[in-house]
Structure formats: C-alpha cells, structure tokens
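Bug #77: duplicate submission created two jobs. Keeping one. Sequence:
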Amino acid sequence: TSASSVEKAVTALGQEGIAVEGFAADARKEEDQRDLIRFAEQRHGRLDVLVNNAGIGEFERVDRLSPARFREVLETNLFGPWYAIRHAAPLMKKSGGGFIVNIASLASVNAFASGAAYNASKFGLLGLSDAAMLDLRQDGIRVAVVMPGSVATDWSHSHGNRDASWMLRPEDVAEAVADLIRFPERAIPSRIELRPS
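Kept job's structure:
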C-alpha cells in the first residue's frame, strides 16, 4: 500500500470521528511486515487484532501464466499473511493473546478456469490459517479465516464486473470480522463462508 493511499484512508476515517493511525507497508516484504508490527508495539505496547486483507489476482490460463505474475500473487496473498503472523504472534503472546483474521475467498475451496495463481494462493491461505489456529490457540491466540464470495470493490470493477448490485459489500466482510472478534474467548469460529444473498 502506498503512503498516499494510507494517508487518504486515515483522513477519511478521521473525518468520520474514528481515531486511526496509518503505516504504509508492502505485504510482499517481510521487513515491511516486521516494521508494521513494531509500529503497533511502539505506539500501543501491544497488538490485539491482526487482519490480513491485502490481496491481488491474476487470471490467466495455467499454460500462459508468467512465472513473475504467479510469484507476485503468491507473495502477496500467501507469503504476506505468513510474514505478518510470524511477527505478530510473539507480540500477542507477550500480552496474553489476540485474534488473527485472514481474509481468503470462496476460491480457497472452489477452483476455477484461469485461476491457477489466485486459487493456489487462497487454497494455501486456508491451509496456513488452519495450521496457525492449531499452533497458536494454546497461547491464547485465535486464528480464523473469512472466505467471501464476490465483493464489490475497486478491484472487482477493474476486472470487468460492471454490475456490482448482486455482490457482497466490503462492510459485510468487515462485519464478519467484527463478529469474530466479539465471539466468546472460549471458542474459535475458525472458518466463515460469506455468499451474496
């Protein structure tokens, strides 16, 4: 994410009366993820919730997909969340626990034509989420994955989805994340699938 887009989001949320701080980081770079977690620790002394939501797609037949684009999708959608979890978990352990939510996709369980890179990254994110949940729950860290269907975003519009009236809205996904965080600590709702109604 660019510094300018982070500043824009912080300003917009501030105008709605929401106290928020921003830090620009490239999900594909481990040092950026480390610095983001350090920023949270320096500003607040702890980290209670991590939401891994960065994602990109490349839609091309498997035999025409370039290695560079395949790698970029996996580095963003799979390596990025792993880097963040790797650096967030020790800080959450220090403060007695936390909640990690990975935003995957229904494409985590449903392959589609020309989706080799995207499907591989999201199937992998589902596996990472399940394994992290099992590894970290004894430390008081709950891990869940939200798998939405089509969501009306700038990204979906740029990929030819002109009529977004039938799609989920970003606030639907945000509400699912908020519901997870409010869930009683004795339980881990580890997977949520969201579909347009």
